[in-house]
């Protein structure tokens, strides 16, 4: 091991057509995974020449996000940071949330957009935060025994259920927020405060 060589912190894994965006912006991933139905051949050839691993999976019963998550779990990644999961279509977003439910117990998965980070939990989460900023708790589809601290509208063992009672648009009243649930699953929305160009 060369101790003078900088240690790589993250591997960049692109889902199929995302490699087109990376190619246009001169950013090289480590791996491209998918059925390659939306990947530009010029981008694929460019990355292949630069030693990027291309993992083609023709399975039409899973989408490219699911194929990519299969890859990272199989290769024992423990922390996964996802961007672009919405796919610019609401049905795509909902489908990807369903895919997330298949994998979130097998690795720590955080989803990022321009403003928020999302985490699906079935036990607990705690994080440092800014007082006055929004935190939403969305059940998928139900969570019981929900206890919170650091939120303006506290839950003390209550329940949330999609289509019945949600926990959207709550607000932090402490710099430390904690959410615990006894049963079910909650999607936690909070701001990440990163500057994204």
Overview of this structure, please?
This protein is α+β, with helices and mostly antiparallel strands and 197 residues long. The protein has two domains: 100 residues, Rossmann fold (3-Layer(aba) Sandwich); 74 residues, Sandwich (Jelly Rolls), CATH 2.60.120. The chain has four helices and twelve strands; from the N terminus they run βαβαβαβαββββββββ. The strands form two sheets. Strands 4, 5, 6, 7, 8, 9, 10, 11 and 12 form a nine-stranded mixed β-sheet that branches. The longest helix has 14 residues.
By CATH reckoning, the class of the largest domain would read Alpha Beta
Main beta sheet:
9 strands, mixed
- The CATH superfamily of the largest domain is identified as Thiamin pyrophosphokinase, catalytic domain
Structural class: alpha+beta
What is the number of E strands? 12
Mean pLDDT, all residues: 91
Q: How much beta, percentage-wise? A: 35-45%
Shape: elongated
Name the poorly predicted regions: 1-7
The radius of gyration computed from the alpha-carbon positions, rounded to a whole number of angstroms, is 19 Å
Topology as H/E string? Answer: EHEHEHEHEEEEEEEE
Distance from N terminus to C terminus (CA atoms, Å) equals: 35 Å
Count of distinct structural domains: 2
What is the number of helical segments per DSSP (H or I, 4+ residues)?
A: 4
CATH T-level topology of the largest domain: Rossmann fold
Helix percentage: 10-25%
CATH architecture of the largest domain: 3-Layer(aba) Sandwich
